[in-house]
Amino acid sequence: MALVVQKYGGTSVGDADRIRSVASRVVGAAADGNQVVVVVSAMGSFTDELIGLAQQVSSHPAPRELDMLLTAGERISMSLLAMAIHDLGAEVLSLTGSQAGILTDSSHGEARITRIRGDRVREHLDQGKIVIVAGFQGVDPDSRDVTTLGRGGSDATAVAMAAALDADACEIFTDVDGVYTADPRVVPDARLLKEVSYEDMLELAASGTGVLMMRSVEFARRFGVALHVRSSFHEQPGTWVKESAMEEAIITGIAHDVSESKLTVHGVPDQPGVAARLFGNLADAGINVDMIVQNVSMEGVTDISFTVPKNDNAAALAICERLVPEFRAGGVDADPNIARVSVVGAGMRSNPGIAATMFRALGDRAINIHMISTSSIRISCVITADRVEEAVRTLHEELVPLDEPVEEHA
Q: Which of 163, 273, 275, 315 is most buried, judged by most C-beta within 10 A?
């Protein structure tokens, strides 16, 4: 008997009809002889609605109370799904994150899973029941307070539960067919990938592909959990994310991200410790910095450019403006109208010329590059936001076909 963990996102359980459809799929998996654990997100945009409600009654909602509020969304989903499954004649039990033994640290809103006590889940599975677990939440064992796991929390719940239970597979059901070589809404001829390595998926997730969050992929790689990304609206196979044994593709995909803003501090004295103080202040404020470029020093001063999430743009700008007089810098400006386009593929390690092709393709379209960042399997460029879709289509046309087999002719 196989043990399968299935995760259903908010769109998949967005209304009563979709919940009943998910119930049928879950019961079908159990009827095939599997032990089934289901992790659910809140319905549709319900979490955003709860956040909006909290902001109406409080200008600064207390983190503990906000977590108490937000965990209600997943509890509603799990209860409704359990009712639908029960009506189909299957034995089922729903559990909150704390009831399922998901233990976390004390960081409200961004808690990290520290341990899973899976005894209660295993007990009910052995009794022949389907077990539904509320995603996105856990409990701090020290304070016994409910916590939430932050963005991508339900995916992280599913992968962690699969690891703790030594599941045979972790299926991530969503509103897309799987992982594509580019966003199919931007590139109509983007190809569905049958398989992606953990390494490539981590870079794609970090570069803006929203199918899987980085945390869940990191967890899967750490514990060797194979992920199967599939649509909840049909039975077609999707994309497997796992440790690939085959030779890596040259280019796995083109990702883009329009959620960042660029800040530039001008005329910074080229002295030891200045950058450390700048980015230390940003880190102390909880602002995540992505790409960083420091120009070559000219006459003892330099410019430092970096990107942050757009939601943090105002806070980051305020910090920089406070530090400019202290640094005796020339000033600071912010540009929220930027986007990042990335080429990802483990195969580029052994295939020189990818960067040159990328820059030439963008140059031929007169798409100016503001910043460049690289890893061994990724090249990212910051460009103006209004050219990002054109850039994605251009790079997909230029680079992704390199991965396809070439027919030999006599």
A: 163
